[in-house]
Amino acid sequence: MLKKRFIRFIRSLWGKTVIVSFVIFISLLIIFPINTSVKYSTLITSSDGTLLHAFLSPDDKWRMYVELKEITPTLRKAIIAKEDKYFYYHFGVNPVAIVRALYNNVTKGRRTSGASTITMQVVRLLYPNKRTYWNKISEIGRAVQLEIFYSKEEILQMYLNLVPYGSNIEGIKSASYLYFQKSPDRLSLAEVTTLAIIPNRPTSLQLGTKNPLIVRERNKWLERFRNEKAFENQAINDAIKEPLSVSRHEAPKMVPHLALRLKKQYPYEPTIRTYIKQPVQAKVEQIVGNYANRVRAMNIHNAAVLIINNETMQVESYVGSADFNNKTDGGQVDGIQAIRSPGSALKPVLYATAFDKGIITPKNIINDVPTNFSGFEPENFDKKFNGKVTVEFALANSLNVPAVKVVKDLGKKELIEVLKKANFQTVKKQEKDLGLSIVLGGCGVTLEEMTQLYAVFANQGKWERFKLKKEEKENRSASLLISPESCFLTTQILSQIKRPDLPNNFDYTYRLPKIAWKTGTSFGKRDAWSIGYNKKYTIGVWVGNFSGEGVPELSGAEIATPLLFQLFNSIDYNSNNEWFQQPKNVVSRQVCAESGDLPNDYCSNKILDYSIRNVSHTHKCSHIKQFFVNYAESISYCTQCLPIDGNYKEKSYINYAPELISFYELKHILYERIPPHNPACTRVFGTTTNAPLITNPNDGSEYYINAKDPQQMQLACQAANDVKEVYWYLNDRLLKKAKANQPVFFVPTAGKLRISCTDDKGRSSTISVTIKPE
């Protein structure tokens, strides 16, 4: 009876002990969770996984994160055969190995063998402590804890990420890249075995200096693998014959600007995957570096290039400067993100927007003449004016006055809204301060903003943010910035070869794939731009100095465009030259060659022009007008003064704008004048002239101004009753258009002023005044 009670007591005690032990164990797991977080090196990889750039970990270690997919069967088998052949069979601890090691250590009085499993080694690497029996017991507990919370593959991955290789190199991936210059999944059996034996003796088996000793140790382990039938005989024979000639290499340092940008943006990601094409990036870096060396003699020190795949909007090449390591020239500045003036590079989006609003078509005429836009007097790059030009000529030749006129007609707000939709950050911030000069470079932009903007023309008018990093959310929702029809019209103009921004010294354009491009040169010649696109790529190029120093030779055409062409020739020379198709709503129509408007009954010179169906304006040409003139064509008549004897005829004349007439007269350009009105006609004032009469200021007068408190001067005239508008000119530059008999005010400057007033019939009068300071 007592015996049975005793047995029941023992069983009860054992059960309670097990339960209590289990509770204590679970409590310890909760109270003392294992910390497996490790600070890794940041790696930047290419589209195919090639390592482009590597940073030291926060604790200055080369500790590169190895992914499960990089652990090949060969690597797995070699490591397990070398370190822990029963890895997949134990629960973190190998009891047999512990007993054997304990027996040997006790009987021999010293440590002769270890019993650490891979799991226990991971614990030791996570919690480096002195090798004592107490710490060994702690390791055993932590090892079991690891096995509870992690799979075998994850534990093996931890080991491969933390295993030491001497100096500041940790992890098999770091050793693989720094010694063999390849990823772990490309290691041979000989290389895997070499890296398997180093961690036990990282000092005595130092790669690069102890290679012969390493080969002997490697081959010894390969023979063990043969005996254990871990690998096939032939594979082992080949591995034994493989020479070992390695040394430590520098970590890859490609795309430094992009690498820093992504590391800052994603500080906790050990591996950042990009869409960079490594061969393309290497080629572009070389081309940009060589080109910068060529133009250095002109005091031009830097360049930046961005290449976008139009179909995917993935960035395939990113070069922020010519030489990242050149601190003297600001090589560490990221020219792709730097805010610069675009010069004329925004003109294509201006004209495209105007096409969409129906304001203009390619053959519309704009006058490129000196014009004063409320104090703003733009000039062309060559300081010359061209008179009558078409819209397509104005864009292809990057004329400034026509562009400003289009901004004024369109409304700068429309252009600003388009740029805001295209995510131009500085434009958003400076919106209230921007004026008509925005289209000539009067705003801040970045190369990435400009390149994304030009990609719109290649993508049917859709704007989409470029993609730098893989595994970003694939949000392909794009906003329509410009219509496909407008994109086509703009592209047709920008793809013309006969234009001034084709480099004079560029002698191998025959190899160039067909592209559309536009240049830009900022005020003071500080920035040279050239941005081009075709069906496949959009390439943005900026050349200049990060210091902001201007260079007389710097221009988009002569400095940036040769680099753009070289890049297209290099990365897209096998292009099939597939080009953009004409949209159905882009139609041809006949227009008057003198105005670009629909011809009236008197227009004889007609040409074909593109237009957008139901969008483009349908203005009738008013440039050609019929006049009654005598047979000598010396006098014109109105219906009130036609000769009773019928001695007159009708003739068509071009009704030149007053601003163009003023330009022609200033330049002594011949044009067919409308004969003066019949002096005997008494319809208008009964005077012998119908030109506007300037009533203020007085011809030949002197006026004094206070420089500290400038006052406005009034301009006034009397015009004929058939005049609707007059044009005021100051020193032969258009000052302002006004209604007939409406006073105009301006702030004069000291000196002689030539003031002219021209009515909408082309009649003009001029006076001169002198302005003196008080």
Automatic annotation (TrEMBL):
Gene Ontology biological-process entries: peptidoglycan biosynthetic process; proteolysis
Family annotation (InterPro entries): Beta-lactam/transpept-like (IPR012338), Glyco_trans_51 (IPR001264), Glycosyltr_51/Transpeptidase (IPR050396), Lysozyme-like_dom_sf (IPR023346), PBP_1c (IPR011815), PBP_C (IPR009647), PBP_transglycosylase (IPR036950), PCN-bd_Tpept (IPR001460)
Record bears the keyword Glycosyltransferase: yes
Penicillin-binding C-terminal domain location: 687-768
Domain Glycosyl transferase family: 50-221
Domain spans labelled Penicillin-binding protein transpeptidase: 304-544
Keywords attached to this entry: Carboxypeptidase, Glycosyltransferase, Hydrolase, Membrane, Multifunctional enzyme, Protease, Transferase, Transmembrane, Transmembrane helix
UniProt key word Glycosyltransferase: yes
Protein name stated in the entry: peptidoglycan glycosyltransferase
Species: Emticicia agri
